[in-house]
Amino acid sequence: MGYKVCVYAICKNEEKFAARWVSSMKEADYIVVLDTGSEDNTVEILRNLGVTVEEKIISPWRFDHARNASMELIPDDTDICVCTDLDEVFESGWREKLENAWSDGVTQARYRYTWNFNDDGSEGYVFWIEKIHARHGFVWKHPVHEVLEYVGDEPENKISVTGMQLNHYADVTKSRSSYLPLLEMAVREDPDDDRNMHYLGREYMYYGMWDESIETLRKHIAMPRAEWPDEKCASMRYIARCYEQKGDIESAKSWLYRAIAEAPYLREPYMDMAQLLYLSEEWDGIVYMCKCALAIKERTESYITEAQSWGAEPYDLISLGYFYTGRYGLSLEAARMAASLAPNDERILNNLAIIAAEVNKHNN
After folding, report:
1. How far is CA 231 from the centre of its chain?
2. Residues 6+ apart with CB under 8 A from 213
3. Torsion-angle region of residue 68: left (phi > 0), alpha (psi -120 to 50) or beta?
4. In terms of DSSP H, where are the helices of 40-192?
5. Measured between alpha carbons, how far is 221 from 241 in angstroms, rounded to an integer?
6. Under CATH, domain 286-297+307-364 is a member of which superfamily?
7. Two domains, one topology: 5-168 and 175-265
8. Does the pLDDT of residue 81 top 90, yes or no?
9. What is the pLDDT, as a whole number, of residue 173?
10. What is the rounded CA–CA span in Å between residue 231 and residue 50?
11. Which of 2, 87, 99, 299 has minimal Cβ neighbours within 10 Å of its Cβ?
């Protein structure tokens, strides 16, 4: 059967993205937006393109209150609600894929999301998100990094929509200065929420607040509700990065060993260790860690995975490990693979030429 689909969003000063966003979302039956105080032409552009827009100042600002207010704009006869932001773009045909996967009784849908793109246009962070939901039974929660919480009476029924793709093209000029105080607020409001504790520790790391980050991430790891190994592994990796920045390499190594043990099926902790060993030119160790990473063939669908671990980096580093331990043939093979994955990286291409010359010298 056919379903009524509504895309809803919040926005502020998004005139540069508004028309592109509407074009991407127009497969929906309804498009509604809550503008939270634009001072540019965002509202005018959206309304001229047929979008229903309501203006409302959310004070004090928090993302969950804004999202919940935007949900109030969704028409009552909507069956499927799709939450996006104006700097995001669906690949065409998304509506058909969504309707084909949806059925009566479904509460929420997962779909593939590319959070950023590399300079060469290849995908960066890729994971699956679930911001599509049934009309009733949901509320947004948390001041920042808000999530949908199911509060309905019927059993949850989540589906995955194969082939549905949402791409994020972030406005790098926008400040994220509100994130840290909002995350601190989130932890104060719900000190037992492990997800927010992890995000707060990571935010402290972004700000170079190494000691605060270490303390917060250690709290996250010790929390009873912190049961997801991938996220605990990430906290351990971030602690290691903080110790590295503090000049305590041995503590950094210790935490990376813990990260590997926590989630040995992820490439990322092995690659973090390989990068750390590179600083002290421990070439055999680099080879071992990269071999472990490359033996992992399946990339998980969570936000924890990092693009570089699934691109040229493992081959680039192992090529250096092989080269400096005299295994030139293996080094050349790995360097060629790195160059095929990063054909515009001048450093990798220069390394390939140097390694090839060394192999040629030893063969003659």
Report:
1. 12
2. 201, 202, 204, 205, 238, 239, 242
3. alpha
4. 42-48, 63-71, 94-101, 179-189
5. 16
6. Tetratricopeptide repeat domain (1.25.40.10)
7. no
8. yes
9. 82
10. 41
11. 2
Query: Using the 8-state DSSP alphabet, how is residue 137 labeled?
Result: S
CA angle 188, 85, 172 (to 5 degrees): 80
Structure tokens at 4: 């009524």
- Only one residue has tokens 């997801």, namely 228
For residue 222, the tally of other CB atoms under 10 A from its CB is 11
Q: Which of 11-15, 92-96, 118-122, 162-166 has the lowest mean pLDDT?
A: 118-122
The percent of the chain in helix, strand and coil, each rounded to the nearest 5, is 50, 15, 35
Strand ranges for the chain from DSSP E: 5-11, 30-35, 52-55, 80-83, 88-90, 108-114, 126-134, 138-141, 147-150, 158-168
Q: Hey, what amino acid is at 333?
A: E
- The string of pLDDT tens digits covering residues 35-59 is 999 999 999 999 999 999 999 999 9
Place of tokens 């400040």: 175
How far apart CA 91 and CA 89 sit, in angstroms, is 6
- CB-based contacts of 11, cutoff 8 Å, min separation 6: 18, 33, 34, 35, 36, 38, 42, 46, 85, 86
- Domain 5-168, CATH class in plain words: alpha beta
Tokens of 102: 């949806």
- Kindly state the tokens that stand for 55: 């203006």
Residue carrying the six token digits 């309804």: 30
Q: Position of tokens 């813990």?
A: 258
What single-letter DSSP state applies at residue 223?
Answer: -
266-297: pLDDT as tens digits? 999 999 999 999 999 999 999 999 999 999 99
The answer to whether the bond into 143 is cis (omega within 30° of 0) is: no
SS3 167: strand
Q: Is 175-265 in CATH node 1.10.3470.10?
A: no
Q: Give, as one character, the DSSP assignment of residue 310.
A: G
| Cα 237 from Cα 169, distance rounded (Å) | 27
